[in-house]
Amino acid sequence: MNINYELPENIQHLLTENKNQTNTFKELIRQGGYMPPNIDLLIDAITALSMGKNILLKGPTGAGKTKFAETLSNLFKQPMFSVNCSVDLDAESLLGFKTLTYQQEKQIIEFIPGPVINAMTTGTFLYIDEVNMAKPETLPLINGVLDYRRTITNPFTNEVVTAKEGFGVIAAINEGYIGTVPLNEALKNRFIVLEIPYIEGEQLKKLIHSSTKLTNDATIDLFVRLSSDLIQAVSQGKLSEDAASIRALLDACDLSMVIPPKRAITRAIVDKLDEDREKEFVKNLVDTLF
Questions:
Q1: What global pTM score does this model have?
Q2: Would you tell me how many other CB atoms lie within 10 Å of the CB of residue 132?
Q3: What's the CATH number for 9-91+117-195?
Q4: 28 or 277: which carries more pLDDT confidence?
Q5: What is the pLDDT of residues 137-148, one digit of tens each?
Q6: Are the CB atoms for 56 and 173 separated by under 8 Å?
Q7: For the packed helices 201-211 and 21-30, what is the interaxial angle rounded to 10 degrees?
Q8: Domain residue spans of the chain
Q9: Which of 64, 76, 239, 272 is the most buried (most CB within 10 A)?
Protein backbone atom coordinates (compact mmCIF):
# COMPACT_ATOMS: atom_id res chain seq x y z
CA MET A 1 0.00 0.00 0.00
CA ASN A 2 1.58 3.31 -1.09
CA ILE A 3 1.04 6.20 1.31
CA ASN A 4 1.59 9.62 -0.27
CA TYR A 5 1.09 11.61 2.93
CA GLU A 6 2.92 11.60 6.23
CA LEU A 7 1.78 9.28 9.00
CA PRO A 8 2.94 9.13 12.61
CA GLU A 9 5.92 6.78 12.78
CA ASN A 10 4.35 4.54 15.40
CA ILE A 11 1.43 3.60 13.11
CA GLN A 12 3.21 3.34 9.75
CA HIS A 13 3.34 -0.44 10.16
CA LEU A 14 -0.44 -0.67 10.57
CA LEU A 15 -0.89 0.37 6.93
CA THR A 16 1.56 -2.18 5.54
CA GLU A 17 -0.07 -4.78 3.31
CA ASN A 18 -0.32 -8.31 4.68
CA LYS A 19 0.42 -7.13 8.19
CA ASN A 20 -0.24 -9.98 10.57
CA GLN A 21 -3.60 -9.25 12.22
CA THR A 22 -2.70 -11.00 15.46
CA ASN A 23 0.32 -8.75 15.93
CA THR A 24 -1.85 -5.72 15.31
CA PHE A 25 -4.30 -6.77 18.00
CA LYS A 26 -1.42 -7.40 20.41
CA GLU A 27 -0.18 -3.89 19.72
CA LEU A 28 -3.61 -2.47 20.55
CA ILE A 29 -3.90 -4.57 23.70
CA ARG A 30 -0.46 -3.38 24.78
CA GLN A 31 -1.69 0.21 24.48
CA GLY A 32 -4.89 -0.61 26.37
CA GLY A 33 -6.97 0.20 23.33
CA TYR A 34 -9.95 -0.93 21.33
CA MET A 35 -9.76 -4.13 19.33
CA PRO A 36 -11.76 -3.65 16.11
CA PRO A 37 -13.74 -6.56 14.68
CA ASN A 38 -11.56 -6.40 11.57
CA ILE A 39 -8.29 -4.73 10.69
CA ASP A 40 -9.85 -2.81 7.78
CA LEU A 41 -11.85 -0.72 10.24
CA LEU A 42 -8.67 0.41 11.96
CA ILE A 43 -6.81 1.03 8.71
CA ASP A 44 -9.68 3.05 7.24
CA ALA A 45 -9.93 5.24 10.34
CA ILE A 46 -6.17 5.85 10.40
CA THR A 47 -6.15 6.61 6.68
CA ALA A 48 -9.01 9.11 6.89
CA LEU A 49 -7.55 10.96 9.88
CA SER A 50 -4.09 11.02 8.30
CA MET A 51 -5.56 12.71 5.23
CA GLY A 52 -7.23 15.36 7.35
CA LYS A 53 -10.74 13.89 7.09
CA ASN A 54 -13.29 13.92 9.90
CA ILE A 55 -14.67 10.51 10.86
CA LEU A 56 -18.10 9.64 12.21
CA LEU A 57 -18.42 6.43 14.24
CA LYS A 58 -21.87 4.87 13.95
CA GLY A 59 -23.01 1.92 16.00
CA PRO A 60 -25.10 0.65 18.91
CA THR A 61 -24.58 1.85 22.44
CA GLY A 62 -21.76 0.10 24.25
CA ALA A 63 -20.13 -1.12 21.02
CA GLY A 64 -16.88 0.68 21.83
CA LYS A 65 -17.06 3.93 19.84
CA THR A 66 -15.52 6.07 22.57
CA LYS A 67 -12.86 3.45 23.23
CA PHE A 68 -12.07 3.37 19.51
CA ALA A 69 -11.66 7.16 19.52
CA GLU A 70 -9.32 6.91 22.52
CA THR A 71 -7.31 4.21 20.74
CA LEU A 72 -6.90 6.41 17.65
CA SER A 73 -5.81 9.27 19.90
CA ASN A 74 -3.19 6.99 21.48
CA LEU A 75 -1.97 5.67 18.14
CA PHE A 76 -1.49 9.19 16.78
CA LYS A 77 0.02 10.25 20.13
CA GLN A 78 -2.53 13.05 20.16
CA PRO A 79 -4.36 14.39 23.23
CA MET A 80 -8.12 14.54 22.71
CA PHE A 81 -10.55 17.25 23.82
CA SER A 82 -14.13 16.01 24.22
CA VAL A 83 -17.61 17.43 23.74
CA ASN A 84 -20.59 15.52 25.16
CA CYS A 85 -23.63 16.63 23.21
CA SER A 86 -27.08 17.18 24.70
CA VAL A 87 -30.07 19.42 24.10
CA ASP A 88 -28.37 21.94 26.41
CA LEU A 89 -25.24 22.19 24.26
CA ASP A 90 -24.59 25.81 23.29
CA ALA A 91 -21.85 28.01 21.87
CA GLU A 92 -20.16 28.37 25.25
CA SER A 93 -20.01 24.59 25.71
CA LEU A 94 -18.28 24.27 22.35
CA LEU A 95 -16.12 27.35 22.07
CA GLY A 96 -15.62 28.72 25.60
CA PHE A 97 -16.85 31.60 27.71
CA LYS A 98 -15.91 34.97 29.16
CA THR A 99 -15.32 35.47 32.86
CA LEU A 100 -14.19 38.23 35.18
CA THR A 101 -10.72 37.88 36.67
CA TYR A 102 -8.00 40.05 38.16
CA GLN A 103 -4.64 41.04 36.69
CA GLN A 104 -2.35 43.08 38.89
CA GLU A 105 -5.32 44.04 41.08
CA LYS A 106 -7.22 45.23 38.02
CA GLN A 107 -10.47 43.52 37.03
CA ILE A 108 -10.45 42.27 33.45
CA ILE A 109 -12.59 40.09 31.22
CA GLU A 110 -10.83 36.86 30.25
CA PHE A 111 -11.88 34.33 27.63
CA ILE A 112 -11.66 30.69 28.73
CA PRO A 113 -11.40 28.49 25.62
CA GLY A 114 -13.67 25.47 25.24
CA PRO A 115 -12.87 22.08 23.69
CA VAL A 116 -13.22 23.18 20.04
CA ILE A 117 -10.89 26.17 20.40
CA ASN A 118 -8.46 24.17 22.55
CA ALA A 119 -8.22 21.36 19.99
CA MET A 120 -7.79 23.81 17.11
CA THR A 121 -5.10 25.96 18.74
CA THR A 122 -3.08 22.98 19.99
CA GLY A 123 -3.43 20.90 16.81
CA THR A 124 -4.95 17.88 18.54
CA PHE A 125 -8.07 15.73 18.22
CA LEU A 126 -11.62 16.82 19.00
CA TYR A 127 -14.10 14.10 19.99
CA ILE A 128 -17.81 14.94 19.68
CA ASP A 129 -19.85 12.27 21.44
CA GLU A 130 -23.52 11.60 20.63
CA VAL A 131 -23.40 14.32 17.99
CA ASN A 132 -27.07 13.78 17.09
CA MET A 133 -28.19 14.73 20.61
CA ALA A 134 -27.38 18.39 19.97
CA LYS A 135 -30.03 20.82 18.79
CA PRO A 136 -29.95 21.21 14.97
CA GLU A 137 -29.15 24.92 15.26
CA THR A 138 -26.10 24.40 17.49
CA LEU A 139 -23.63 22.34 15.46
CA PRO A 140 -23.70 24.58 12.34
CA LEU A 141 -21.62 26.96 14.49
CA ILE A 142 -18.63 24.75 13.72
CA ASN A 143 -19.33 23.94 10.05
CA GLY A 144 -16.25 25.93 9.06
CA VAL A 145 -14.18 23.89 11.49
CA LEU A 146 -15.33 20.67 9.88
CA ASP A 147 -14.63 21.52 6.24
CA TYR A 148 -11.52 22.43 4.27
CA ARG A 149 -11.34 25.91 5.88
CA ARG A 150 -10.61 24.58 9.37
CA THR A 151 -11.45 28.03 10.72
CA ILE A 152 -14.01 29.72 12.94
CA THR A 153 -14.74 33.28 13.95
CA ASN A 154 -14.98 33.16 17.72
CA PRO A 155 -18.23 35.00 18.53
CA PHE A 156 -16.96 35.86 22.01
CA THR A 157 -13.70 37.54 20.90
CA ASN A 158 -14.25 38.15 17.15
CA GLU A 159 -10.93 36.41 16.59
CA VAL A 160 -10.55 34.22 13.52
CA VAL A 161 -9.15 30.91 14.76
CA THR A 162 -7.42 28.59 12.29
CA ALA A 163 -6.66 25.03 13.31
CA LYS A 164 -3.03 24.06 13.63
CA GLU A 165 -1.66 21.08 11.73
CA GLY A 166 -2.59 17.82 13.45
CA PHE A 167 -6.13 18.92 14.31
CA GLY A 168 -8.73 16.24 13.56
CA VAL A 169 -12.35 15.53 14.42
CA ILE A 170 -13.85 12.23 15.53
CA ALA A 171 -17.60 12.12 16.21
CA ALA A 172 -19.87 9.34 17.44
CA ILE A 173 -23.56 8.76 16.91
CA ASN A 174 -26.24 6.50 18.38
CA GLU A 175 -29.21 6.36 16.02
CA GLY A 176 -32.85 5.94 16.99
CA TYR A 177 -32.60 6.93 20.65
CA ILE A 178 -34.98 9.27 22.45
CA GLY A 179 -33.72 12.83 22.17
CA THR A 180 -31.68 12.26 19.01
CA VAL A 181 -32.30 14.05 15.73
CA PRO A 182 -31.19 13.09 12.21
CA LEU A 183 -27.98 14.79 11.12
CA ASN A 184 -28.58 17.34 8.39
CA GLU A 185 -26.91 16.62 5.06
CA ALA A 186 -24.51 19.57 5.31
CA LEU A 187 -23.11 18.17 8.56
CA LYS A 188 -23.12 14.52 7.51
CA ASN A 189 -21.23 15.31 4.29
CA ARG A 190 -18.34 16.65 6.34
CA PHE A 191 -17.57 13.16 7.70
CA ILE A 192 -16.25 9.80 6.56
CA VAL A 193 -18.64 7.28 8.15
CA LEU A 194 -17.45 4.08 9.85
CA GLU A 195 -19.90 1.48 11.13
CA ILE A 196 -18.77 0.10 14.51
CA PRO A 197 -20.31 -3.32 15.20
CA TYR A 198 -20.30 -5.25 18.44
CA ILE A 199 -17.12 -7.16 19.31
CA GLU A 200 -17.69 -10.93 19.42
CA GLY A 201 -15.94 -14.27 19.79
CA GLU A 202 -12.19 -14.40 20.37
CA GLN A 203 -11.86 -10.63 20.19
CA LEU A 204 -14.40 -10.21 22.99
CA LYS A 205 -12.58 -12.87 25.02
CA LYS A 206 -9.32 -10.91 24.65
CA LEU A 207 -11.09 -7.70 25.62
CA ILE A 208 -12.50 -9.28 28.78
CA HIS A 209 -9.02 -10.54 29.69
CA SER A 210 -7.42 -7.13 29.10
CA SER A 211 -10.16 -4.84 30.45
CA THR A 212 -11.67 -6.69 33.44
CA LYS A 213 -10.48 -8.50 36.55
CA LEU A 214 -12.09 -11.76 35.45
CA THR A 215 -9.49 -14.47 34.79
CA ASN A 216 -11.40 -17.75 34.83
CA ASP A 217 -11.50 -18.95 31.20
CA ALA A 218 -14.60 -21.09 31.68
CA THR A 219 -16.57 -18.15 33.06
CA ILE A 220 -15.24 -15.84 30.37
CA ASP A 221 -16.42 -18.30 27.70
CA LEU A 222 -19.90 -18.21 29.23
CA PHE A 223 -19.96 -14.42 29.10
CA VAL A 224 -18.84 -14.52 25.46
CA ARG A 225 -21.68 -16.92 24.65
CA LEU A 226 -24.14 -14.74 26.54
CA SER A 227 -23.02 -11.71 24.55
CA SER A 228 -23.49 -13.58 21.27
CA ASP A 229 -27.01 -14.62 22.28
CA LEU A 230 -27.88 -11.05 23.29
CA ILE A 231 -26.56 -9.60 20.04
CA GLN A 232 -28.56 -12.14 18.05
CA ALA A 233 -31.71 -11.29 20.03
CA VAL A 234 -31.16 -7.58 19.32
CA SER A 235 -30.76 -8.27 15.59
CA GLN A 236 -34.04 -10.20 15.66
CA GLY A 237 -35.85 -7.34 17.38
CA LYS A 238 -36.41 -9.26 20.61
CA LEU A 239 -34.29 -6.93 22.74
CA SER A 240 -33.28 -3.28 22.71
CA GLU A 241 -29.63 -2.45 22.00
CA ASP A 242 -29.00 -1.65 25.66
CA ALA A 243 -29.20 -5.35 26.46
CA ALA A 244 -26.19 -6.16 24.28
CA SER A 245 -23.96 -3.33 25.46
CA ILE A 246 -20.35 -4.52 25.63
CA ARG A 247 -19.71 -1.92 28.30
CA ALA A 248 -22.42 -3.44 30.49
CA LEU A 249 -21.08 -6.93 29.85
CA LEU A 250 -17.61 -5.89 31.02
CA ASP A 251 -19.16 -4.44 34.18
CA ALA A 252 -20.87 -7.79 34.80
CA CYS A 253 -17.55 -9.59 34.34
CA ASP A 254 -15.92 -7.38 36.97
CA LEU A 255 -18.77 -7.83 39.44
CA SER A 256 -18.69 -11.60 38.97
CA MET A 257 -15.27 -11.67 40.64
CA VAL A 258 -17.04 -10.95 43.94
CA ILE A 259 -20.71 -11.83 43.55
CA PRO A 260 -22.32 -14.75 41.64
CA PRO A 261 -22.40 -14.23 37.83
CA LYS A 262 -26.22 -14.34 37.68
CA ARG A 263 -26.49 -11.53 40.19
CA ALA A 264 -23.72 -9.59 38.47
CA ILE A 265 -25.60 -9.81 35.16
CA THR A 266 -28.82 -8.72 36.86
CA ARG A 267 -27.14 -5.61 38.27
CA ALA A 268 -25.13 -4.68 35.17
CA ILE A 269 -27.55 -5.64 32.38
CA VAL A 270 -31.04 -6.82 33.37
CA ASP A 271 -31.95 -3.99 35.75
CA LYS A 272 -31.10 -1.39 33.09
CA LEU A 273 -33.86 -2.67 30.81
CA ASP A 274 -37.24 -0.92 30.90
CA GLU A 275 -39.59 -3.68 29.77
CA ASP A 276 -40.42 -6.67 31.97
CA ARG A 277 -40.61 -8.82 28.85
CA GLU A 278 -37.00 -8.03 27.98
CA LYS A 279 -35.86 -8.61 31.56
CA GLU A 280 -37.43 -12.07 31.59
CA PHE A 281 -35.92 -12.89 28.19
CA VAL A 282 -32.40 -12.07 29.39
CA LYS A 283 -32.92 -13.92 32.68
CA ASN A 284 -33.93 -17.03 30.75
CA LEU A 285 -30.78 -16.79 28.62
CA VAL A 286 -28.67 -16.43 31.74
CA ASP A 287 -30.34 -19.43 33.39
CA THR A 288 -29.45 -21.65 30.43
CA LEU A 289 -25.77 -20.64 30.60
CA PHE A 290 -25.04 -20.11 34.28
A1: 0.79
A2: 23
A3: 3.40.50.300
A4: 277
A5: 788 888 899 998
A6: yes
A7: 20
A8: 9-91+117-195, 201-289
A9: 64
